[in-house]
Amino acid sequence: MPYPLSARLVTIRTTIRPELPDRIKEGLERVFQESSPNQFKLCSFENLIASLERRFPSIFSVPYFKEVLSVRLQRVATCNEGLLCLDDFITVMTESLTNDTTNWGGMKTPIAGLIGLSNLPDQITTKLLKRGFDLNVMLVGRSGLGKSTLVDTLFKAKVSRRSSQKSQDSEALPKTTEIHAVTHVLEEQNVKVRLTVTDTPGYGDQLNNQNCWVPIMQHISEQYERYLIEERAVVRKRFLPDSRIHVIIYFIEPTGHRLSNLDVECLRRLTRVANVIPVIAKSDTLTVEERALFKHNICEDLLRNQIQVYGGDEEEGGVSCKDIVPFCVVGSTSQHEVGGKLLFGRATRWGVVECENKAHCEFTQLRDLLIKTNMGDLVEKTHCVHYENFRHQRLKSGEPVLKMHHNGNSLDHCNESTL
Q1: Are 378 and 275 in contact (CB under 8 A)?
Q2: Out of the domains of life, which is the source (predicted)?
């Protein structure tokens, strides 16, 4: 139920012009003076960010505060040849500190006793458990690399597109990259997750793979567009449906050499719009020495081409696996008896390659990063960084946001068959 008009007016009056304490303003003015080389008049946003990190390191402990603040400062600076004045800087900092963080160091008012604030986490947990969680995973890689098998092994369920098909007949190779999404509801100890697995059959399987990543990029943008439409609707749903891609698992062929040109071009584009976790598929086909050299070469290629893949971040409350990326994984839905226990693995003449044995592969570290430790961080980074970048560019372009019909089609291109 909407608030009464009077309540709305009171809220607007108290929040439209937030104020900072004088001592914080004085500290921000000193930061600006230290960063400005031309008599304290104009300063670049890069110098301001660096000075803020030195003088107020505590505010950057808030997840993605630095990224959001950089976007806001840059947005204002672009209107003045990349420079900001003191008034603009104070305005942006006021907005950011009052809306995005309350971690202002010593700005805490002591209370005389317990008032019940410590129970807030329990309230949030109860609501989240009732609502459930969303996780949207996209699989990108050539055919035959075990994408469906790996995702089925990750979630210990038949969640892949191939496993969900009623007909198990062999499919014809698509002529272009296609997009297929399947949604499942998984539950573990009263925790429900709506899992959407998006497959991309046909990627990299043609003689001419030029622009084979375009359908993938279009699909990711379409999901951002859908969310933006729902967000800007006059009458919004209580919980916005989230079909945005939270993580892309990119499968690298185990050649033992380096990234192919196709991998480099695709990764360069995908990492700009989504969280990408690269994995070396079927790593049991490589020896230990070949695997170590292959990972080293891949890391060099990523660094040389300035490709920022997702490896987690301890500062954001998760676990960092940047030293392990790319993950060498082995997937299998078959169970074999090893030491009296049934384990998932691949049977060979010389033994069983266990999927969940850290001595055999890095499948366990991948699953922990994806679900156990960093699932919330993946969703949050998608919303605060990638979607925010899309939203900024989309609204900055000035183009009208297309209205979507309930079936996902644009109303500008609907006919009788689509309505």
Answers
A1: yes
A2: Eukaryota
Average pLDDT over residues 309-318: 71
CATH 3.40.50.300 occupies which residues in the chain?
130-396
**Does the structure show a pLDDT above 80 at 99?**
no
Tell me yes or no: is domain 5-100 CATH 1.10.238. Answer: yes
Answer for the pair 280, 224: CB distance below 8 angstroms, yes or no.
no
What pLDDT shows up at residue 11? Answer: 33
* Mean pLDDT, residues 143-168 taken together: 82
- Token pair listed for 337: 């008896």
> Mean of the pLDDT values across residues 68-75?
78
| E-state strands within 167-320 | 180-188, 191-199, 247-252, 276-280
Contacts 24+ apart (CB under 8 A), 296-304: 297/257, 297/258, 297/259, 298/252, 298/258, 298/259, 298/326, 299/325, 299/326, 300/258, 301/258, 301/259, 301/264, 302/259, 302/267, 302/278
- What pLDDT does residue 7 have? 34
